[in-house]
Hints:
This protein is of the alpha/beta class. The protein has helices at residues 23-29, 39-56, 70-81, 95-106, 124-133, 155-164, 213-220, 233-240, 254-270, 272-292, 319-330, 357-371, and strands spanning 12-14, 62-66, 87-92, 110-115, 139-143, 145-146, 151-152, 168-172, 191-193, 207-211, 308-312, 332-336, 345-349.
Amino acid sequence: MSIQSFFPPRRVLMGPGPSDISPQVLQAMSRPTIGHLDPLFINMMDEVKSLLKYAFQTQNEFTIAVSAPGSAGMEACFVNLIEPGDKVIVCRNGVFGERMRENVLRVGGEAVLVDDEWGKPVSVDKVEQAFADHPDCKLLAFVHAETSTGALSDAQALGALAKRHSALTIVDTVTSLGGVPLKVDEWQLDAVYSGSQKCLSCVPGLSPVTFSPAAIEKIQSRSTPIQSWFLDQSLVLGYWSGDGKRSYHHTAPVNSLYALHESLVLLQNEGLENAWQRHKAMHNKLKQGLESLGFEFVVDEAYRLPQLNAVYVPQGIDEAKVRSELLNVFNLEIGAGLGSLAGKAWRIGLMGYGASEQNVALCLKALEEKIK
Length: 372
Ligand SMILES: *Cc1c(COP(=O)(O)O)cnc(C)c1O
């Protein structure tokens, strides 16, 4: 047997993630591996923490990258904050809200569901009602940017509402971080997780998380142990915390963290506000082009994500066939519809480095050719 090295083609990634990665980030990843307890590496980890604090707009001391994809960041929030018997309001307006419900059940919590239609944001009024009906709810969990539909929810209003009811929030910002305004401290969010491969345009496999002092207090006052050893953040803290001595917890994905560091440096150099602006501007260009091709958006403009554009597939078009032609002819990946939108919609991502004029133009040209 003689299997050869793998050389992937250069695709343009305009799906729901992973997104296009800057050559600078890929180069950073190929730099020499050093030990994860090497003082130089520890110093770089501290810089990653500072850069993540900027990206999340937080002063939270506990701001790190979980060494696993967004789903692990999600699980880290749920296993650490919830104890068996805790009642949690879970907002479900797409695929990822449903995953939150499963996480609550698996840690022995009780989920109080607030359902909204796919493509709509979480209804703040319904959440208010849920708190009124269940005053013993200690937590509110919601997705800021639903990647399955492209809907943005009002994290600021939901954060304020939770605080009025003395509840902590668990917030999914996997697709929002770096793409739309997100202000963890100002909005009083408590346990917030994200992913490296969406609007940060880094390689997949890392999950930035941040915990507020109130979230840390909740973890420290638990009466039951955290079920997961790997995701027990009180153990992980000893690995990521700055004061002199660091204790071995697991081996950090050294080269992936170089990549995250580089992608966050690029974000810092561009400026967070400018990055948000760029996503919006590229969305407007894509929207103009798509609408002139006759496409209709799934999500109303008032709460549409610029970085995830869900559009209905035109009548009479074989959606899977067109997607595979885009991939094979144009090296262009767009996303299929998920759940109730499967077979009916495409999801076109404009995330991070991929939110560019060049990508917008390629996508419009390819779609025009394939649907006419
Ligand atoms: C992609 C995504 C996740 C999961 O992230 P993985 O890195 O695929 O585990 C969770 N939530 C949302 C909103 C996402 O878009």
